[in-house]
Design goal:
Elements (H helix, E strand, L loop, with lengths): L1 H5 L1 H8 L17 H14 L1 H20 L20 E5 L5 E5 L1 H4 L12 E4 L20 E4 L6 H7 L8 H8 L27 E7 L2 E6 L2 E5 L23 E5 L10 H7 L3 E6 L12 H7 L5 E3 L5 E4 L2 E6 L15 E6 L2 E5 L9 H10 L4 E5 L5 E2 H5 L9 H6 L1 E2 L4 H11 L3 E5 L8 H4 L8 H15 L3 E4 L4 E5 L1
Parallel strand pairs: 7-8, 8-9, 9-10, 14-15, 15-18, 18-19
Antiparallel strand pairs: 1-2, 3-4, 5-6, 5-20, 6-7, 11-12, 12-13, 13-14, 16-17
Helix pairs in contact: 13-15
Length: about 475
């Protein structure tokens, strides 16, 4: 924000370059530097405690580097910076390197957790064009309703229930607040929105909603993976939207915490429709691996369940098994990630998300555990962003350029994906989670050409699978498949 306020023209030029998409550039087509400067100043004033917390983390890292020499850490507790006192435990690893963990449940009850910083912005959608979320703040405008409301409040659910249960204008104004009464009617309609009928046929159906979002429906159960759902608008490309969702989703499976797989924008709108959200447990307090369960519960999702690797949940007619998820996290010790195996009747479907097949023998062991997997969904964004793109702000020591480029958030390439297919005994493979859908640019910033490595590598997989007589496809936009 400071850089944009000082030199907005540089940000405008960088944002216009497709190669710079997803970079640290504020993406406004007109000069809004004065507003950004005010926002930066207000953030420093209102979020002093969070800024102090960030500084305290740096100081604690420095303290451990300078004074933790293998002897007892007990004497260092009194030197922990004040914002972290009582919220961390110090420890050594087996090589006597010192580190610390947060006592995460206490952090959510501390002054550092500030729900008053949470808000929703509503605007009418008439295109897929949205600025990238990591670098462009959302500013007030005449056509946007900016509603400052903590995510956990029931008022959020009441607002999104309006999609299926009408209410009077007066009650909606009372819900959102009189200050927005002038703009609010533009977001409301007297027309009943569409919705999908409950699936009630033999077998099951899966629908691809884009990226890593797949809805599986069988009699008595609906399961959705990594919900990122498109909005309907006139002239949109072919896609499934909120209008194509059932009124109830029994399980939502979150594979990992990256922004294109755990998207609060979608989850908040579905909260009252979701039975249980399934996530992986984390390492227990490391900065780079926060608890997804605690995050979601703090945001008002009360029905969250952690499922550890190889654990299983049964439902009528099937089961959900957590499968090991290797790679894609830049070699950091992150445990809050699962692939999932969904078994309905005799059919097994595995959602591997961005798993990178670092050691094919893992999937030999998985085959022994779960048997043959008929259908595999696998992500092949095999270039991957470098270490600093997501995790750079969490690193006290800046990595060398070669290290930064070597450690990437990459999915499987052809060799890894075909080995996964062989190990699991699959007869169908779908490449997904490639970030190509136009409505995903604001969280993925990915634009491929025919020569892009993920396209080349996934083409090799599709060709090899088809040569074996398998069903194979790289998914884009939407697809529906019925299975007996």
């Amino acid at each position: 924000m400071d850089s944009y306020a000082e030199l907005p023209q540089a940000h405008v030029a960088a944002s216009a370059n497709p190669k710079m998409l997803g970079g640290p550039f504020v993406n406004f087509k007109v000069d809004r530097s004065e507003e950004i400067a005010r926002l930066a100043a207000a953030t420093r004033t209102k979020r002093t405690r969070l800024i102090e917390l960030s500084e305290a983390i740096d100081k604690l890292d420095e303290l451990l580097r300078d004074r933790a020499d293998g002897h007892s850490l007990e004497t260092l507790y009194c030197a922990i910076p004040e914002p972290l006192r009582g919220y961390v435990e110090l420890f050594y690893d087996r090589e006597h390197h010192a580190s610390f963990r947060f006592i995460e449940p206490l952090m959510y009850r501390s002054p550092c957790y500030q729900p008053d910083a949470q808000s929703l912005m509503l605007r009418r959608i008439d295109s897929d064009d949205r600025p990238f979320i990591f670098s462009t703040p959302r500013l007030y405008s005449d056509d946007c309703l900016h509603w400052t409301v903590p995510f956990a409040e029931e008022r959020v659910d009441a607002l999104f229930k309006l999609r299926s249960k009408p209410a009077s204008l007066a009650s909606v104004v009372d819900l959102v607040g009189d200050s927005e009464a002038g703009l609010l009617p533009s977001f409301l309609t007297e027309e009943e929105p569409g919705h999908a009928d409950k699936y009630d046929r033999p077998g099951f159906r899966w629908r691809y909603f884009g990226h890593a979002t797949v809805l599986i429906e069988a009699r008595g159960c609906a399961i959705m993976t990594d919900p990122v759902v498109a909005y309907p608008f006139a002239g949109m490309s072919t896609r499934f939207t909120f209008d194509d969702l059932p009124e109830w989703i029994d399980f939502v499976l979150i594979t990992h915490g990256h922004q294109d797989h755990l998207l609060l924008e979608t989850l908040l709108q579905l909260r009252e429709r979701i039975g249980t959200i399934i996530v992986a447990p984390n390492n227990g307090g490391t900065l780079e691996d926060p608890s997804l369960a605690l995050i979601l519960r703090a945001c008002g999702f009360s029905r969250v369940r952690e499922l550890a690797e190889c654990d299983q949940i049964d439902f009528v007619g099937g089961s959900i098994t957590a499968i090991p998820f290797l790679g894609e996290h830049c070699d950091l010790n992150i445990r809050s990630k699962n692939a999932y195996l969904v078994r309905i009747g005799q059919h097994c479907v595995m959602f591997a998300a961005d798993s990178r097949n670092l050691d094919p023998i893992v999937y030999d062991h998985v085959r022994q555990l779960v048997g043959r997997v008929h259908t595999l969904f696998v992500g092949m964004e095999c270039d991957g962003a470098p270490l600093s793109w997501i995790y750079g702000p969490l690193l006290t020591a800046k990595p060398a350029h070669s290290i930064n480029q070597s450690r990437r958030a990459a999915g499987s390439d052809f060799r890894g994906a075909i080995a996964m297919l062989d190990s699991l005994g699959c007869s169908e493979v779908y490449v997904y989670a490639m970030g190509q859908e136009p409505w995903l640019q604001f969280i993925s910033s990915i634009r491929y050409t025919d020569d892009s490595s993920p396209i080349v590598q996934s083409n090799l997989l599709l060709a090899a699978a088809r040569e074996r007589g398998f069903q194979a496809e790289r998914l884009l936009g939407c697809k529906e498949v019925m299975l007996p």
